[in-house]
Amino acid sequence: MQRFIVFIIQVNMKKIIYPLSFVLLIATSYLSCMKTSVTPVTNNQVIDTSKTLISNVSLVGKWNVLSDTISYGAARSNYHGVSSDHYTFTKYGNLFVKLAPNNYTDTAIYAISSINNSVVWQNIAYSIDGTVSHVSSVSVPYTITSLRNDTLILTSNFQTSAGVRFEEITFKKQ
Question: In Å, what is the CA distance from 73 to each residue of 141, 151, 159?
Fold first, then answer.
């Protein structure tokens, strides 16, 4: 009987989580359509082009990447950030990312969902080793697992056709 109850709870949670993730994805896409003039990061200059403040400013600030762990099937990788690696969340909903591997930079628009305590962003432009791409894509939802004055942990866990992909990014506020 106990297994049956656990099974029912798991099935019902899936019925809730998947639609919520879809709604969050749609909401983020809608938000990104409202802000069409985000300027990509150039020469490490962060430029906020929006003047509309977002309602949830809990992530605002510059967050240094301490580690980024990804598990996908049987494979696992762990990246330890260097001093220049960071995510900058602005009070206008812009996100600027800089990571040392491949000299990666990203310019995005983010939204925080109070329903499931997660953040998702839409990439507007990114650069790898100086090659800029303006192909737009939406991130998977990242759960705000821990948020304190100086530490942040974001996790994502989702099913793909090749298996479960898990990621945990640990930050320290600069």
Answer: 19, 28, 10
Q: Going from the first residue of the chain to its last (174 residues), give the mean pLDDT of each consecutive group of 10, the final group possibly shorter.
A: 44 45 43 45 54 91 96 87 95 94 90 94 90 90 96 94 91 96
Q: Residue 12 contacts by C-beta under 8 Å, 6 or more apart in sequence? A: none
Residues 67, 88: Cα–Cα separation, whole Å: 16
Residue 156's domain is classified under what CATH number?
2.40.128
> Could you give the angle at the alpha carbon of 7 between the alpha carbons of 4 and 8, nearest 5°?
90
* The predicted structure's pLDDT at residue 71: 92
Q: What's the total number of domains in the chain?
A: 1
Print the domain residue range for 68. 2-173
Q: What ranges in 35-152 are assigned the alpha helix state H?
A: none
Pairwise CA distance, residues 50 & 47, whole Å: 9
- For CA atoms 167, 135, 58, 88, the dihedral sign is positive
